[in-house]
Amino acid sequence: MRFDRYTVILLTLRPDAPVMTDDEAAELQDRHLAHGADLQDRGLVLARGPLADQDDERYRGFSVWSVDAATARRHAEADPAVRAGRLAVEVMTWMMPAGNLQFSQVRAPRSIAEATAD
């Protein structure tokens, strides 16, 4: 049986994340979203998004990448929220029977305002 392999990144809230004002956190989130949208526009990220209703609140985001683990890690570690010490990056390879998933290119939100617009 053939298997497709994808790099998966889990973003977690660091236990030593800096305390930020609401304005600082919103500005950082906008830069985080724009960074991810750029990676998605370039085809490096196939799908990404926040996690909700999780058992562990440290888990913040999940992404599926089209590139090898080292390349994905390098780009994920350049994320402004990671560089600011708010989020940590966990990288792994995800395998499934070939053809099990298909991804469509969609426009990703570049800011909180875009993400919450109707």
TrEMBL record:
<dbReference type="Pfam" id="PF03795">
    <property type="entry name" value="YCII"/>
</dbReference>
<dbReference type="InterPro" id="IPR005545">
    <property type="entry name" value="YCII"/>
</dbReference>
<protein>
    <submittedName>
        <fullName>YCII-related domain-containing protein</fullName>
    </submittedName>
</protein>
<feature type="domain" description="YCII-related">
    <location>
        <begin position="9"/>
        <end position="94"/>
    </location>
</feature>
<dbReference type="InterPro" id="IPR011008">
    <property type="entry name" value="Dimeric_a/b-barrel"/>
</dbReference>
<comment type="similarity">
    <text>Belongs to the YciI family.</text>
</comment>
